[in-house]
User: Which sequence fits this backbone?
């Protein structure tokens, strides 16, 4: 992704941490019975959740922290998770 | 639109709310206004009514909180998360929290409280986040003008999927009309049940039962016909618990659960209010019957086996009440369903019997069949 490649390592790290916190907050099912999850190597849960976010906001589904995705992540918003239980 | 998993919703259509903690960014009056307008945005679409209380536990508890405030969803300081609300349910259910670290405003210089509150109340009523960018329930903040706001279509569809549409009532009624198709009319002529409420209203006597009420001229037991409560008092819908009129002031009171409405004739005066305004203790959740006594200008409220006395002049509940109804009203027995004063007598409706109580003799002087009042 050109935007991703354009980011400096520091910006990338900052975006990554920001996105991780965002996805933990709004794209993680909380409460109820917890279950372990076995995933294939390529099914990185971070990528899966980025895709989930991109689908929710009608963005191009890349699984990457591109500019449009980061723009959404940086917007002020409601604290209720988008993926809830 | 999206609903929460399990589709939680409120099982009642009158919900209480309370603002328990304010923000320093706005005056309390502005906060009250923004909250009221935000709730109103939803009640225009569905048959839900919101009643504000100032103490105790409301269905929707509203507060401005800072950082970790004990609900597992800590706020994060300025920007980021602005607010959150819990889906309908007991305890935390319906509660709505705003991040006190934000700059809240009624305009655009900061985060508009109406905009965020309207969104959060969508959650408090059972809506999750919508994927439609034009929806109020879209997760990210987008300013909405409080004075020109109309609930977007997606949100209307969502909330009506839970509660159904609000019935549109064209204009203010002045006279009740007889519906062309009679709804299921409770057969009082052949029933052991009594009326839910009885009151004078102007020159007429009104008898309420379930979704129906009957009007009759006091001294003219003919031409009595049933009508739906919604046709004349749409806000009351059905099952009125108690009613009374203070003829001198030209107003009447209708009670239903912990709320009451004031009317002038058939014209409703404002939104419902809480019965605790009268000074009832919190354990009283509804009133069985009410009767206004002209001479002492006092209203008696019957709750279970007891009654309270309210001084209409002092606007205050009298001391030394409640008292036991059967002990104080000799000859009156059973549960009091409704009561009304006519020509100096109090008529107590209890099941199939109506006791005519003489206030001077302090005794029951006759007993008639309750259904005879409507021509049976």
Assistant:
């Amino acid at each position: 992704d050109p935007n991703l490649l354009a980011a400096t390592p520091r910006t990338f790290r900052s975006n990554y941490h920001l996105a991780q916190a965002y996805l933990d907050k709004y794209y993680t099912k909380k409460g109820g019975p917890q279950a372990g999850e076995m995933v294939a190597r390529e099914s990185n849960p971070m990528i899966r959740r980025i895709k989930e976010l991109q689908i929710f906001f009608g963005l191009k589904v890349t699984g990457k922290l591109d500019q449009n995705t980061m723009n959404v992540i940086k917007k002020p918003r409601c604290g209720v998770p988008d993926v809830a239980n | 639109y999206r609903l929460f998993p399990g589709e939680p919703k409120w099982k009642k259509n009158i919900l209480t709310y309370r603002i328990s903690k304010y923000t320093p960014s706005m005056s309390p009056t502005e906060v009250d206004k923004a909250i009221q307008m935000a709730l109103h945005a939803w009640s225009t679409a569905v048959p839900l009514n919101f009643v504000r209380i100032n103490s105790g536990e409301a269905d929707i508890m509203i507060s401005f909180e800072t950082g970790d405030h004990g609900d597992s969803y800590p706020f994060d300081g300025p920007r980021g998360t602005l607010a959150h609300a819990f889906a309908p349910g007991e305890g935390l259910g319906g509660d709505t929290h705003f991040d006190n670290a934000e700059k809240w405003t009624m305009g655009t210089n900061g985060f508009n409280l109406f905009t965020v509150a309207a969104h959060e109340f969508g959650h408090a009523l059972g809506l999750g986040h919508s994927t439609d960018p034009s929806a109020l329930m879209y997760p990210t903040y987008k300013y909405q003008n409080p004075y020109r706001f109309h609930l977007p279509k997606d949100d209307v569809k969502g909330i009506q999927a839970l509660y159904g549409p609000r019935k549109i009532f064209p204009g203010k009624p002045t006279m009740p009309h007889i519906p062309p198709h009679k709804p299921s009319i409770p057969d009082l002529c052949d029933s052991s049940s009594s009326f839910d409420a009885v009151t004078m209203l102007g020159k007429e006597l009104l008898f309420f039962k379930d979704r129906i009420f009957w009007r009759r001229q006091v001294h003219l037991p003919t031409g009595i016909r049933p009508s739906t409560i919604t046709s004349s008092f749409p806000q009351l819908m059905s099952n009125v618990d108690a009613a009374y009129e203070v003829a001198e002031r030209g107003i009447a009171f209708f009670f239903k659960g912990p709320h009451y409405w004031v009317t002038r004739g058939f014209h409703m005066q404002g939104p419902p209010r809480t019965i605790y305004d009268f000074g009832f203790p919190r354990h009283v959740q509804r009133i069985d019957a009410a009767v206004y006594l002209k001479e002492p200008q006092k209203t008696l409220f019957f709750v279970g086996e007891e009654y309270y006395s309210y001084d209409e002049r002092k606007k205050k509940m009298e001391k030394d009440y409640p008292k036991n109804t059967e002990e104080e009203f000799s000859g009156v027995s059973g549960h009091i369903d409704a009561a009304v004063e006519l020509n100096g007598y109090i008529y107590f409706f209890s099941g199939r019997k109506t006791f005519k109580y003489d206030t001077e003799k302090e005794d029951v002087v006759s007993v008639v069949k309750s259904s005879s009042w409507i021509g049976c």
